[in-house]
From TrEMBL:
This is Dihydrolipoamide acetyltransferase component of pyruvate dehydrogenase complex. Belongs to the 2-oxoacid dehydrogenase family. It comes from Plantibacter cousiniae (nom. nud.). Residues 77-154, 185-215 are annotated as: Disordered. It is an enzyme of class 2 (transferase). It comes from the Bacteria. Its cofactor is (R)-lipoate. Its EC number is 2.3.1.-.
Length: 447
């Protein structure tokens, strides 16, 4: 027998939540076929099968938090015979927790390290079959059909404590809609005992559904991306000394350029907007002020200036704030950047961002202007030296060629780590960005 354990998904994450199974006991799977979805503190990840064979046991139910290295599923590889129900499966399964580069299975997401003693981690999520023979316990999982719903709707259902298996989808292809989950949650909250609707905390280790109290307040468990974001922002705010500067500029020439590009047949299907132009400007300005594209290595006592730009784009998603990044963004043309940003944001909102896309960022842009906000004081993405906030573009009276005229105006905000960047460097970088947005032709003087 072959046992597949939760692999190391990177970024130092030690646990994940099992969202759903794509297989059931008795199913035959192919190598690298997706068998489950797990949610880390950063992304929704699909797990591929490490071998071709028949599923003989599912160790955990959806909604369970699993530590790296803990058992998820057992297989009878092709060419082998599944054990008799009378034989304990834990005694026949080969535990799959490889270490290093030796004996790695050909999966897409990697593996966690084997512990020195070879024992299972001490803290273990409750497995199906702890108190009874495996066949009796795995049957409910095998019989359960996987409801059709998008990742954001699945997330909402988990947060509200709604079992999607009890709902009948009315959307396309029987897909369950957000409204159906919310209606089910309303009925569920009415059935909760009074103590669950009050202010009391849930016992340790339990998964508490959102509940509406009599005064209208709502309690939701802090999990996944929301918890990770909160921890990262607190760490960043109290570790790096933040300084924020603001620059308001006339971007009418850039808006005229965007209009011209929209009419040009060379643009094709590329969607170029002011965020794209700012992204390109950041890549150019970094060459002139490399200190903004750096990190503080406390352990080594060094400042690391990167030779490439991992351009992070802060994306608001149903699961919370994510900052995937575009690797080597400085090598991309304006049109290529437009496509990369669009794909990055769409993938993040659909919950399909790969863990690798959340690593390697060196500088970030946060587009608060899409929410109608003029400016802000963005908090640094941990490990980075600078973050730029792009405000809303507004038509307003502005001095132009000795007269007052209606112009397109935007405010740029730059927060930076004062350990790495002096005021003079931060100001020069921000002015370079403003110069390129106010007169795109000035790019020719900077490259």
């Amino acid at each position: 027998m072959k046992r597949f354990s939760l692999p190391d998904l990177g970024e130092g994450l030690t646990e994940s939540e099992l969202v759903s199974w794509r297989v059931a006991v008795g199913d035959h799977v192919e190598l690298n076929q997706v068998i489950a979805e797990v949610e880390t503190a950063k992304a929704l990840v699909e797990l591929p099968a490490p071998t071709a064979g028949v599923v003989t046991r599912l160790h955990v139910e959806p909604g369970t938090t699993v530590l790296v290295g803990e058992a998820l599923v057992d297989f009878a590889p092709d060419g082998e015979t599944a054990p008799s129900p009378s034989v304990p499966e834990a005694d026949t399964a080969e535990v799959d927790r490889p270490s290093g580069a030796v004996d790695r299975e050909p999966v897409l997401v990697g593996y966690g390290p084997r512990t020195a003693s070879g024992e299972r981690p001490r803290r273990r999520a409750r497995s199906v079959g702890d108190d009874a023979p495996a066949p009796a316990q795995t049957a409910p999982i095998a019989e359960r059909a996987r409801p059709r719903a998008t990742p954001p709707v699945r997330r909402l259902a988990r947060d509200l404590g709604v079992d999607l298996g009890t709902l009948v989808g009315t959307g396309v292809g029987g897909r369950i809609a957000r409204e159906e989950v919310e209606r089910a949650a309303t009925g569920l909250s009415e059935q909760l005992p009074e103590r669950a609707r009050g202010a009391g905390a849930a016992p340790a280790g339990t998964r508490e559904a959102s509940a509406t109290a009599a005064d209208g307040s709502v309690r939701r468990p802090i999990t996944g991306v929301r918890r990770r974001t909160a921890e990262a922002m607190v760490s960043s705010a109290f570790t790096a000394p933040h300084v924020t500067e603001f620059l308001t500029v006339d971007v009418t020439p850039t808006m005229s350029l965007l209009d011209a590009l929209a009419r040009s047949p060379r643009t094709g299907d590329h969607r170029v907007n002011i965020l794209t132009v700012l992204a390109k400007a950041v890549c150019i300005a970094v060459r002139r002020t490399p200190a903004v594209n750096a990190s503080w290595d406390e352990g080594a006592g060094e400042i690391v200036e990167y030779g490439h730009v991992g351009l992070g784009i802060a994306a608001a998603t149903p699961r919370g704030l994510l900052v995937p990044n575009i690797a080597r963004a400085e090598e991309l043309s304006l049109f290529e950047l437009a496509d990369a940003v669009a794909d990055l944001v769409r993938t993040a909102r659909e919950g399909r961002t790969a863990p690798a896309e959340l690593r390697g960022g060196t500088i970030t842009i946060s587009n608060v202007g899409v929410f109608g906000v003029d400016a802000g004081t963005p908090i640094l993405n941990p490990g980075e030296a600078a973050i730029i906030a792009l405000g809303a573009v507004r038509r307003q009276p502005w001095e132009f060629e000795g007269q007052v005229a209606l112009r397109h105006v935007v405010t740029l905000s730059l927060s930076f780590d004062h350990r790495l960047i002096d005021g003079e460097q931060g100001s020069r970088f921000l002015v370079d960005l403003g110069t390129m947005l106010s007169d795109p032709a000035m790019v020719l003087t900077m490259v």
